[in-house]
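Appendix B. Chain record.
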Amino acid sequence: MAVGLRLGMDLCQPHQCHCGSLVDARGLHSFVCKRAPGRTARHHALNDLIARSFTSAGVPITKEPNGLFRTDGKRPNSLTLIHSFKSLCWDVMVACPLAESYIEGAAREVGSTAEMAASRKEEKYNEIEARHIFQPIVMETLGIFSSSAHQFLSRLGHRISTSSGEARDMFSLPENLCVLAELQHCPTP
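Structure tokens predicted for this chain:
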């Protein structure tokens, strides 16, 4: 799937999605469909991987924390339990640069989709920044991270590597996130 996506190959038969939209042969609609079955599973898998990475680095976390609700009832994916200054909370998102709403910007600049989505996440959670540090972890379906996510994952990878004593552990988190983002895409045949 990941290779086919990168090469722009046909991955499924054109058909009508259960949401009513047409799905072309490349199957890209499943990246953006609000009713795609793999979308929620991918999000949970990405969040679990980041949570386990914090645990590997010796940082306790809580997933789906209570008490951090915004005015619309939404909350970040997880929160670290270190309270020396402010606790860190994050929210994971995979944005598809091949979606019609992003394709013009994505054609002009690599990573623009991730940067736009990260900015939207920061605006969405600006209410909790007085009490917590908020980190959007945004990546594009084809493996490009927003600049802030890239820096954050590099620091977390370094902390994991220091904790484990394995230098290569520094690079495994971004690689695993990329694989999850691409391989969780499953167009309906």
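Further analysis of this model is presented in Appendix C.
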